[in-house]
Design brief:
With 419 residues, this protein is α/β, with parallel strands linked by helices. It has a single domain (23-411), classed as Phosphatidylinositol (PI) phosphodiesterase (TIM Barrel). Helices cover 32% and strands 20% of the residues. It is built from 14 helices and 14 strands. It has helices spanning 23-30, 35-40, 67-74, 119-122, 151-161, 175-184, 205-214, 221-224, 236-242, 250-265, 293-314, 358-366, 371-375, 386-397; strands spanning 48-52, 79-87, 90-93, 126-133, 136-147, 166-170, 193-198, 226-230, 272-274, 319-324, 329-334, 337-343, 350-352, 380-383. Strands 1, 2, 3, 6, 7, 8, 9, 10 and 14 form a nine-stranded mixed sheet that branches. Strands 11-12-13 form a three-stranded antiparallel sheet, with no helix packed on it. A two-stranded antiparallel sheet has the order 4-5. α3 runs parallel beside α5 (151-161). The longest helix is centred in the last third of the chain and has 22 residues, at 293-314. The two termini are 30 Å apart. The model has no long low-confidence stretch (mean pLDDT 94).
């Protein structure tokens, strides 16, 4: 149960749908049962809105990636995104590589890497929701009713709750190969799972395919495991330089992205492409060699649209997606200063958003429901605010443009007195 004195507000979700549209109808349109089969059949669908880490609610005592968050999402819809990490001997459902943020596994203020733990030693560990004070997690927390579960148990519960669900399994770093191989040996999941991965550790399609082979994947994995690359625009300069580009310009960023996608398509079953887009100043031309960090950041974000347009025309069956990625929490540092935070993937510790630069603009737009679909025609959005994205999509179908705020009250720690 949530604490009575918690900083996390328990705010009930409200809908702002057009007249005559019920929440049930809206969810049915934007969270299609058996989504992969519908895509394969070429059905014309509305924008699909995938619940990012489930329907979590800090103030309600529901942690992200928990069984409760999953059940809440799949009883109301048919699509969900989860994060998968490896222990020494099996995968679990959790976002961070370390244990600190969502458990008290090692006691006061300590952290352990899941990869250093045995599966049987961590399954059953209670999930917690830490309190926040002045931008930092504290050692006060709510013990939720959920625990760490194995990926297999999580999926079996999910498909018992909703047999027609589609689950996007987000993997990171070099764990992607082992997790893709794990799925390749479990055919009961293959028509209902998408394996998401990133460009950070796999600069070419061949390098990823070889890694999956080396992880002892089933010999048919290329035709059974559906893969979904997540290409961050900020990775485009790195990809370009890996291919020998010394002087970055806009075209080099676009070519780096399209080359990476072409290589992947030649090596595996690519069902979709996800790129976070914000695109401030979208009508301005970008010319010349890029040297200023803000200019490179903005150019990469703009290049994402051209890369997705290329994929749309070159590979019509590949679905295009983006995300509404909210901050992890907002906290007041002083009576006059509030700051937005993400967390470190390895430690789970808070990291403040930068302020006053290109990243500040981009992060706010990426966190704004409805922004990405206004930039480019998308097939799906993986969203921290699925209710808002669905409502905005419903209004857009009726020719009404809605404006949303990136600030999201359920993620805002309640003000605490300052001495």
């Amino acid at each position: 149960m949530p604490r009575n004195d918690s900083v996390w507000p328990d705010i009930e979700v409200t809908w702002a749908l057009p007249d005559g549209v019920s929440p049930t109808r809206a969810i049915d349109e934007h969270s299609t049962p058996d989504l992969l089969q519908a895509w394969k059949d070429g059905r014309r669908l509305a924008l699909q809105v995938v619940a990012h880490r489930g329907f979590y609610n800090y103030g309600g005592g529901i942690q992200e990636n928990s069984v409760s968050a999953m059940i809440a999402a799949l009883r109301n819809g048919s699509t969900i995104e989860i994060d998968v990490k490896l222990t020494r001997n099996g995968p679990i459902v959790v976002h961070d590589f370390g244990s600190y943020r969502v458990t008290n596994l090692s006691g006061l203020g300590q952290d352990r890497l899941w990869s250093a733990c045995n599966l049987e030693d961590v399954v059953g560990t209670p999930l917690i929701i830490r309190e926040v004070e002045k931008g930092k997690f504290t050692e006060d927390f709510t013990v939720t009713g959920d625990t760490i579960v194995s990926l297999e148990d999580f999926l079996d519960i999910a498909f018992d709750v909703n047999p027609n669900a589609t689950i996007f399994a987000d993997t990171n770093e070099r764990q992607t190969a082992e997790i893709a191989a794990w799925f390749s040996h479990r055919p009961r999941y293959l028509n209902r799972i998408v394996v998401m991965f990133y460009s950070f550790q796999y600069p070419t399609g061949i390098s990823l395919a070889e890694a999956i082979d080396d992880a002892n994947a089933d010999s048919n994995w290329r035709s059974t495991v559906r893969m979904l690359p997540n290409l961050y625009p900020e990775q485009l300069p790195i990809l370009a330089r890996r291919h020998g580009t010394a002087n970055l310009d806009y075209n080099a960023l676009v070519q780096a992205g399209t080359r990476w996608i072409d290589e992947l398509v030649g090596e595996m079953w690519v069902v979709g492409l996800l790129m976070l887009v914000a695109v401030p100043g979208r009508d301005e031309k970008i010319t010349g060699i890029l040297t200023d960090p803000d200019a490179i950041t903005l150019a990469g974000d703009r290049a994402a649209v051209d890369i997705m347009t290329y994929v749309r025309h070159r590979y019509p069956t590949i679905k295009l997606g983006s995300g509404t990625r909210a901050y992890i929490f907002r906290s007041d540092l002083t009576p006059d200063k509030r700051t937005y935070y993400t967390t470190d993937l390895w430690t789970g510790l808070p990291q403040p958003w930068s302020e006053g630069d290109a990243w500040d603009i981009i992060r706010r737009l990426r966190a704004t429901p409805g922004n990405a679909p206004s930039v480019i025609n998308l097939d799906f959005v993986i969203s921290d605010r699925p209710f808002d994205d669905i409502a905005i999509a419903q209004w857009r179908l009726r020719g009404v443009v809605c404006v949303a705020d990136f600030d999201f009250p359920p993620l805002n720690a309640i003000n605490t007195p300052f001495n």
